[in-house]
Write a structure and sequence with these properties.
Strand content: 5-15%
CATH class of one domain: Alpha Beta
Number of strands: 6
Radius of gyration: 20 Å
């Protein structure tokens, strides 16, 4: 197979369609009697995947582009409103597909994970903050990496060194990174495989992942936590690996923000924000999956799919 957008879209559609037929419980509920949709759930998710990879953040603009460029691949394309509603309803299904596609990669059993959180801004003006639907979930927070305050959410991501998502969570800007990390680990399928295999996993994080209780809980789960020493602490084991490996999670976040336009998500409601975040994670996972299937050297490379 070639590494281009048409081939990726075709391969993803076939895999998604087969998976949804084998697991109908994952498809959003639809009454048996009524108007049948003219575009399948697998086709909608394929459209969402292509939109994210091409960097067209406007759904209306993307659908116009798709009609002109990809009409041969999709017999029917919905309007912007219908596409948006279908995409929001498919949030949980896309999240499930991320986990399934991740399991089908040769790199899913990587012995090293990296963990970090990154801001997702939801508004800039005070008036927008006051009237925004995510208010109460979204909140003001501080990003030390960029030395700035923002109003919005945080994406907490645990992934392999190749950028393959192991688990993720979307929280308020002030949520405790340690507790969120524990929640992710407790609800990710990869932990079941880790505990069943009996081997220990290495997880690399920054200085915010500290605390005796947190580290004890992680250790009991079969994970060796590596992080830089905080002020006043002795040098911790594995310190020589932190500088090069810590750059990996920053690079993964940059892929989500720079190439998949995560910060330009355009979500106006909680469901809309979640759907658009999952859309970007699915696009990155599918690209890594396809690169793995086609034998590409760099699994997280999106260059072949962004035009």
């Amino acid at each position: 197979m070639d590494a281009d957008l048409d081939t990726l879209a075709t391969a993803f559609y076939v895999a998604a369609d087969d998976l949804l037929k084998a697991h109908p419980e994952r498809v959003p509920y639809r009454p048996r009697i009524g108007i049948s949709p003219r575009i399948s759930d697998a086709e909608v998710m394929t459209l969402a995947l292509m939109q994210a990879l091409l960097g067209l953040t406007s759904e209306a603009r993307w659908l116009r582009h798709a009609r002109e460029r990809y009409g041969r691949m999709f017999p029917y394309l919905p309007g912007q409103s219908g596409y948006n509603k279908r995409l929001r309803r498919l949030g949980e299904c896309m999240n499930w597909l991320i986990a399934v596609l991740a399991e089908r990669n040769d790199i899913c059993c990587d012995d090293v994970w990296v963990v970090d959180s990154t801001p997702i801004e939801c508004a800039k003006s005070r008036e927008t903050v006051r009237r925004s639907d995510p208010a109460g979930w979204a909140e003001y927070g501080y990003c030390a990496s960029h030395s700035r305050y923002f109003w919005g959410l945080r994406l907490h991501l645990v992934c392999t060194l190749h950028g393959l998502p192991v688990g993720w969570a979307l929280t308020g800007a002030k949520a405790d990174e340690r507790q969120t990390c524990l929640d992710i680990l407790a609800n990710t399928p990869a932990m079941n495989r880790l505990q069943a295999g009996g081997h220990r996993q290495i997880m690399i994080g920054d200085k915010n992942y500290f605390g005796a209780e947190f580290e004890e809980t992680v250790d009991q789960a079969g994970i060796d936590l590596l992080r830089p020493a905080r002020k006043g602490e002795k040098t911790r084991p594995g310190a020589r690996f932190f500088k090069p490996l810590r750059q990996i999670i920053e690079s993964i976040n940059d892929t989500l923000k720079g190439q998949l336009d995560l910060e330009q998500h355009g979500g106006r409601t909680p469901a809309g924000v979640i759907a658009r975040v999952v859309q970007r994670l699915l696009a990155m996972t599918a690209a890594i999956w396809h690169n793995d299937q086609t034998g590409q050297t760099i699994r997280r490379s999106l260059t072949a799919y962004d035009h």
